[in-house]
Amino acid sequence: MTEATVSSTDRHESRKLWTMPRWLTSEHPFPWVFPTTATLIVFGLYPILYAVWLSLHRRHPVTRENQFNPEWNWSRVFADERVWDAIAVTYMYTSVAIIIQLALGLAIALLLDSERRGFGLMRALMTLPLVVPPAVTGMMFLLMYNNSFGVISRTLQDIGLLSSDSPLLATGSTALWAIMVADTWQWTPFMVLIMLAGLRALPKDPFEAAAIDGANAWQAFTRLTLPMLSKIIAIAVLIRGIDLFRVYDYVKVMTDGGPGTATETLTAYAGKIYFGSANFPYASAVAILTLVLVIITANVFIKVFKVRF
User: Fold this and answer.
1) With bands split at pLDDT 50, 70 and 90, how would you rate the model's confidence at 143?
2) Which of 26, 56, 101, 132 is the most buried (most CB within 10 A)?
3) Is 218 exposed, middle or buried (0-12, 13-18, 19+ CB in 10 A)?
4) Rounded CA separation 154/164 (Å)
5) Domain residue spans in the chain?
């Protein structure tokens, strides 16, 4: 056997030794879907199932042991007035904040939808608030709302819109709105980016035809832009609404649900139970109720507005 033949045989054997299994090199979806599926099961499905299991137990006040009692927590949830107040606060916060953020996002997107010099940089700068952690944003606005040295509070006092005896975060009528301002500052850019992507994808021919027919800017916006953006708007509202419904960071950092229960959302109430009294089963029941309400509300929205993915 010649040296060339031996070398060729060795290369062939080495190639066979390092060849990947057929199921990894084929079009079989399992090896590609498995990592994502495993991650969802470990960090998504398991915590939900564990929370459901916890909600079916009663926390003994003395021994701190969990005793299986499926009716205990759920009967308390529906009889708890703070739960119903938290549901009302959550729905109010979500609906008002989503309207404000959608209106601002669409308006800013229309202003930035231009190819003139500098607008690309402005679009890039719009994303900066999104990289700030919500807890940090809450702390920033907590300092700016301070009644003694906060820039927002002092400005409102100087122009006569705020009394020094009524701090923004310590007054029931203004605390929730103050939290919405922080949320709106951080997440309006998210709506801007989605609206900009939708505006850039719109066909140009209908607008050119409308301009030839003599349509003004308002008519083009109401009769062309909005109808063609309706699906994009619906998807943006759905995604942002789900996130708003589970707001926790801003409430925890800025008011901790106060004054009283004026800003106490469902997630904030569940957090108080969990970290305050360590009643994990009851906190899990409130959290599962929040999840159920999110699913029901999202599905109603999808059916009413006929959202298609």
Assistant:
1) very high
2) 101
3) exposed
4) 9
5) 82-305
